[in-house]
Amino acid sequence: xxxxxxxxxxxxxxxxxxxxxxxxxxxxxxxxxxxxxxxxxxxxxxxxxxxxxxxxxxxxxxxxxxxxxxxxxxxxxxxxxxxxxxxxxxxxxxxxxxxxxxxxxxxxxxxxxxxxxxxxxxxxxxxxxxxxxxxxxxxxxxxxxxxxxxxxxxxxxx
Length: 158
Hints:
Blueprint: H1 6-34, H2 37-41, E1 44-51, E2 57-59, H3 61-72, E3 80-90, E4 95-105, E5 114-122, E6 128-137, H4 140-149
């Protein structure tokens, strides 16, 4: 058995952390889809910030869970949160930024029309949790007009 090089060890740790972060976001989506505000809130740190796409700001996992339970019981009853990770970048060993496309629907989403940027951190217990999330609606028409009339605004191809 050979000892992994430092680069190999770092790569393995990153892969493990990336899997844990994907699992965290899957867990948050599953809690949403079950209408379980408490479980949704537990995906966040105690001092998390959640900026919704309508501009409401919630602070802390407990408040985020409580407020979402009220939403799950009314306006968001029976909805499902679908997320697709488009970018995941680490900043040190305990912080990552994740960009997702997603949507909230009662059935299968036709299009993932919302974007969210998550800052996730390794919490004191070693688990990854959401420290901040900012959500916005993707405005395709405005984006297309911007690109047409000012091509320099188009992001670089990945």
